[in-house]
Amino acid sequence: MVLLSILSIPFIAAIILLFVKHNEKANYIAIASSGITLALALNIAFNGAANFDASWISSINARFVLTADGLAKILLLLTGISFPAIFIATSKNEIKNRPQFLSLMLFTQTGLLGVFLAGDALLFYFFWELALIPVYFLCSIWGGEKRIAVTFKFFIYTFLGSLFMLIGIILVYTHTADQSFAIQSFKEASLSAGQQLTAFALFFTAFAIKMPIFPLHTWQPDAYEQSPTAVTMVLSAVMVKMGLYGVMRWLMPLFPNAFSAHSNFVVILSVIGILYASFIAIRQDDMKRLIAYSSIAHIGLMSAALFANNEIGAQGVLIQLFSHGVNVLGLWIIADIIEQQTGTRSLKEMGGLAKQNPTLGILLVGFAFANIALPLTNAFIGEFLMFNSLFQFKPWIAAAAGVSVVLAAIYTLNMVQKCAYGEVSKKMSKMQAPNVPAQFVLIVLLIVVIISGVYPAPLFDLTADTLQQLFIK
Amino acid sequence: MNAIIASALLGVLMMFASWIFDNEKTHTRIALVGLLALIVANLLQLNGIYTIPVDYKGLLSFTQFGLYVNTILFILTFLYVWLNGDEIAKIGNHAADFYALFFFILCGASILTSFNNLLMLFIGVEILSIPLYILTGADKKNLNSNEAALKYFLMGAFSTGIFLLGITFIYGATGTFQLIAPTVNPATGMAREQLMQSAGLILIFVSFNFKVSAAPFHFWTPDVYDGAPTVFTSFMATIVKATAIIAFVVLFHSQYKALGYAWELLLTFVLISTLFVGNITAVFQRSVKRMLAYSSIAQVGFMLFALYGPTNFANEGILLYIMAYSVASIGLFGVLIKMKDYSFEAFNGLAKKEPLLAAMTTIFTLSLAGIPLTGGFFAKYYMLNAAVQSGVGLWLVALAILFAAVSIYYYFKLIQAMYFVEGAPAMHELEQGYKYKLLVFAILILALGILPNVFLSYLYF
Questions:
Q1: Whether A126 and B388 lie within 8 Å, measured CB to CB
Q2: Where are the beta strands (DSSP E) in A337-403?
Q3: Is the N or the C terminus of chain B less surrounded, counting Cβ atoms within 10 Å?
Q4: Is residue B169 one of the residues assigned to a domain?
Q5: Are A315 and A247 contained in the same domain?
Q6: CB-CB: which of A129, A147, A174 is closest to B372?
Q7: Are A248 and A365 in a shared domain?
């Protein structure tokens, strides 16, 4: 029942928000509902929860099944933390029709939670698409200048991908013994090698677009740049994880043979993507675009480690799913504060943040370190494990991917340098009093970064069962 | 049987209603009551409570499926009249005449859902079609409407000829009008009679393609849908089309084996060209009404997937499809009627002026595009699954899905106009009640999209 309630709370709050007129009230409702969701997520993560299973469409044997294993729990935690953080951090931003905006955000959260909890292929697909629709409206209504074209590209891309997954689902479904959409039946479906390959390709397309893996990434930087920052945070902190989640939940267990047969190919694509995105990130002057490309690089590393198909890599990815979300969220919030107060995203026009607002400067450095994965930060553990797995997979690939660590240091530190140090620039001098709620959120997130960097054991315990399912038959 | 008799009687009653009552609103009320009576009469038979005893000599066969389709069609018509009553009254002199035609159409529809004999099929198709020609030309002072009616009539007459020719061939081959499941001996191949039967079936196939406006027999559709008064386009594109496609599916589920391999080839050809023509042409339309005409062709492309074989998915899916498609289309046409201008630009800024109306339009559009949470998703899903189960190649399914992605383009153009572009839409006056009526359609779409089970369970009583 807990699983059902974590799904219904944001949904109900979203519906209530449709009828709210007052901005402040809307804020409270959104923050309260996402707070409750976070509490429930913590409860599920550390106390466990029974499966929820109800009949849905009986004639085709599709059931409304919600389950929470380690993989789902870690993403529940991430979703749980992200939304209140985003709501609080952006509570002072000027947003037209804030109640509707928040309502759509909560619909998105519902979709995301549904994706992570669904234990039935059709239900999974259902939520997968559902998470996309509100984002389409969020970006197209509240986004930047080129929002309509960019969002449409983003929508068509991901929609097409998920349609391919739908064919994959139909294909596997018709070969299940009991004609059902349950994960277990899908795992036991009797597919020939060729069919397995087809299904693998169909599922993979959807996940690869969502992650995104090079060369299917072209929608992402534009979409991140043009979306309102609150939505960018959702997109890059939580939504891209849907792709990785899909790989771990569906691709690996369902098509093990096709998966290992094509791991080389995907790993190489991912590594190309990492290097490509890192090099572009170095050249960026726009802070939002820089973070976007850095995020592509990080996700690329995660997909490479995942497709290296060994236990240590999967462990690293499981940890990093959470860590990357928190880190990138921190960076976005800082970028958003700067943009809101100074009106610029261009690094050239920045400088002197440390003098103007020391706290924010320190926070920026903290998250920048986490972005480079320095020891003591959460990202170190995940990246260490992932590089380890790539080394086991093929040393030269680990070496190639390792270059990205250096590149990450270059672009991240460059950003810190241009933004925080030097003389106070004209634009930066517009920095006013600190944005208290946002900085509060940042401090909490930084504490999470450091705690999970120093003492990651709870995250390991949380995900042990998923690893066992994936690798010990 | 109940439905056939009741609808014919009600049609006649309705004709005289305009003599007795002068008020158009009264006509609408009588029609609504009549439709309710029709629904009840049909439900009596569906639930096995009472059936008018008629010896129909095996010409008809009443199945759970057919009777349930009747129920759906009647309820859809009821909702349609309930929503559009005032608009219908604005056209022509007596609304009652149009309602009479509706009842005759429903009479044809209830024959089409329960035929067991080619002659009954023919009669059903004709009873269904002839009132349509009149409805198309109902706006007598509008040249477009006249042109559309004439075009429709000429083309329709032509397709009727082809239909009859097909029946003649089959009669020549089998010596009966009764529908007999064909048997082909694979060892000896087709005998001469069987070849004749196949030729007849192909002719009927062509004629049905015309009726459901599948490409390459679709040319009448855009002009007729565009020329006819919008309320009647709404009726033709939904309830009538749904009936034709159901008859199409029922007929060929029992007969397709006679065509052997040729069947898959023929159907695939028609299906691909329908999807292609419908979707690609819709992209270039400037008028929403014409876009909907082409999109209705594209939707037929998806419905044709049900014809590959009589699987459970095909039967349930086609029901879901006609429900989701009809409800969404009636709703969308209902919005369109209230616009003064039918171009996409006319919808600019609708979300600001009429947020509820825009939200409902979005739901209808999303359903037509097949997005989850709306009925259209499951409709499309069932069709694709039916295709895969009947052994259709995955490439065809992938192609259909590519076209579904194309359809996003023109459907979302409407959403983009309403939400993301500023403007002042010119509208006819809009009562609050009308919006609430439309809300019922939107809720139905969502219900179909969340719990399709509820609507299908009736099939298995």
A1: no
A2: none
A3: C
A4: yes
A5: no
A6: A129
A7: no
Choose the final residue of a domain: A256, A284, A315.
Answer: A256
Domain boundary among A209, A238, A256: A256
CA nearest to A130 within chain B: B372
Question: Where does the pLDDT of residue B188 fall: very low under 50, low under 70, confident under 90, or very high at 90 and above?
Answer: low
The per-residue pLDDT for range A160-218, each reduced to its tens digit, is 888 889 989 988 998 888 888 888 888 888 888 888 899 999 999 999 998 888 888 88
pLDDT surpasses 80 at B64: yes
Alpha helices in A48-97 (DSSP H): 70-89
Report which of residues A354 and B133 the model is more confident about: B133
Radius of gyration of chain A (CA): 21
Sign of CA dihedral A247, A251, A254, A256: negative
Distance CA B363, CA A409 (A): 47
Same domain, A345 and A249: no
Closest CA to B376 of B386, B385, B384, B366: B366
Report the residue from A147, A163, A170 with minimal CB separation from B405: A163
Question: Is residue A473 predicted with pLDDT exceeding 60?
Answer: no
Residue B355 CA, distance from chain mean position: 29
Q: Is B204 exposed, middle or buried (0-12, 13-18, 19+ CB in 10 A)?
A: buried
pLDDT by residue (tens digit) across A226-274?
Answer: 888 888 889 888 998 999 999 988 988 888 888 888 888 889 999 999 9
CA distance B343 to B417: 10
**Residue B331, in any domain of the structure:** yes
In a domain, B396, yes or no: yes
| B282: containing domain | 115-460
pLDDT digits (tens, 9 = 90+) for A154-174: 888 888 888 889 989 988 998
Q: Minimal Cα–Cα distance from B407 to chain A, Å?
A: 10
Question: pTM for this one?
Answer: 0.91
Query: Is residue B443 over pLDDT 70?
Result: yes
Where does the pLDDT of residue B154 fall: very low under 50, low under 70, confident under 90, or very high at 90 and above? very high
Domain co-membership, A203 together with A308: no
Tokens representing B257 are: 């084996």
Cross-chain residue pair A160–B402, CB shorter than 8 Å: yes
Chain B interface, best mutation among A19, A58, A107, A126, by max B CB count within 10 A: A126
**Residue in B312, B373, B416 nearest the CB of A148:** B416
Looking at the complex, report in whole angstroms how far the Cα of residue B320 sits from the nearest Cα belonging to chain A. 13
Helices and strands, number each (H, E), in chain B: 19, 0
Of B389, B404, B412, the CB nearest to A174: B389
Q: A58 at the B interface (CB within 8 A)?
A: yes
A57–B388 C-beta distance less than 8 A: no
Q: How far apart are CA A253 and CA A234, in angstroms?
A: 27
ipTM of the complex: 0.86
Instruction: Take residue A431 and report the two structure tokens written for it.
Output: 């920095």
Q: Is B251 contained in some domain?
A: yes
Domain match, A342 and A404 both = yes
Q: What is the mean pLDDT of residues B320-332?
A: 94
Domain identity same for A228 and A289? no
Residue of B363, B388, B402 to mutate for A, most A C-beta atoms under 10 A: B388
Q: Report pLDDT for B182.
A: 63
The alpha-carbon gap from A140 to the nearest alpha carbon of chain B, in Å, equals: 7
Helices then strands, counting H and E runs in chain A, come out as 23, 2
Name chain B contacts of A155, Cβ cutoff 8 Å. Answer: 408, 412
Domains in chain A, number = 2
The verdict on a CB contact (< 8 Å) between A160 and B316 is: no
Are A273 and A379 part of one and the same domain? yes
Cβ distance of B420 and A140 shorter than 8 Å: yes
Split into its structural domains, chain B has a count of 1
Mean pLDDT of A370-388: 87
Provide the residue range defining the domain that includes A165. 1-256
- Residue A326 and residue A238 share a domain: no
Q: CA–CA separation, A452 vs A458, rounded Å?
A: 8
Residue of A nearest to B351 (CA): A141
Locate B215 and state its tokens: 């490409």
